[in-house]
Each structure stands twice: as C-alpha cells, then as structure tokens.
UniProtKB/TrEMBL annotation:
Protein name, per record: Peroxiredoxin
Source species taxonomy: Bacteria, Pseudomonadati, Pseudomonadota, Alphaproteobacteria, Hyphomicrobiales
A Pfam family it matches: OsmC
Cited InterPro entries: KH_dom-like_a/b (IPR015946), OsmC/Ohr_fam (IPR003718), OsmC/Ohrsf (IPR036102)
SUPFAM superfamilies: OsmC-like
Organism: Reyranella soli
Length: 128
C-alpha cells in the first residue's frame, strides 16, 4: 500500500518527502515562517483527493466507453472556526449528457480517498 517518509532539518519548514521513487518538497508559506518552496500539508491533502477523484472518474468513463475528454476536480479545504470541510467541484468535458455527469458525480462520492476521508481512520504513532 502507500508509504511516504518525510524529513526536516533546520530550514523552516522545508520538508523532503520520498514516496515510491518520487521526491517531493513540502513547505509552509512565508506567513507561517516557511519559504513556500513546495505545497503545504493541507495542499497535499487536497491534491490527493483531487488526483484520486480525477483518476477514478477517468477510469470509470473509459470502462463505460463514454466520450469524456477531460475531468477536472477543484478541491478546497475550508476551515470556519472550529469546523472544517472540503468543497469539491467537478467539471467533466466531452460528449456526455447530464445523466452521465450526474452518475460520475455519484462515483466521485465513492473514490478510495473520498471514502477514507469521510470514514476517518486510526493513526498509530510509535517511536523508533
């Protein structure tokens, strides 16, 4: 399954991430003391949901042989006081009708990352 390692040194708050054979950099913006050399943690979270949504809907359209030319998932993490939620807006391009688009929106509610976020999950922390 998925695995990532993150390491940070003394440069606020630049973090090296290795996942699979990919290397990423995460950071915070200047307002939080970082240098904005990479996405912040919540940007990575929304990126994961957006990517999973787009990939799943592309797979679904291919399996159904629907003429979808592009899928866009615009995902925003919103915090209002002590409440938080995610807004997701889908744009589906191609020769698909309103009913097919509605079906794809229904499928978006059941993508793997969507279900994980909606269901919550236990996080077990230990010291090495």
């Amino acid at each position: 399954m998925a695995h990532a390692k993150a390491s940070i040194g003394t440069t606020n708050y630049q973090t090296a991430i290795v996942t699979g054979h990919h290397r990423l950099t995460a950071d915070e913006g200047p307002a939080l003391g970082g240098k904005d050399v990479g996405p912040g943690p919540y940007e990575l979270l929304t990126s994961a949901l957006a990517a999973c949504t787009a990939i799943t809907l592309r797979m679904y359209a291919e399996r159904k042989q629907w003429p979808v030319t592009a899928v866009h998932a615009d995902v925003h993490f919103v915090r209002e006081g002590d409440k938080q939620h995610i807004d997701r807006v889908l744009t589906i391009e191609g020769g698909v009708d309103a009913e097919q688009k509605k079906r794809m929106a229904d499928i978006a509610e059941r993508t793997p990352v969507t279900l994980t976020l909606k269901g919550g999950l236990e996080i077990r922390t230990t010291l090495a």
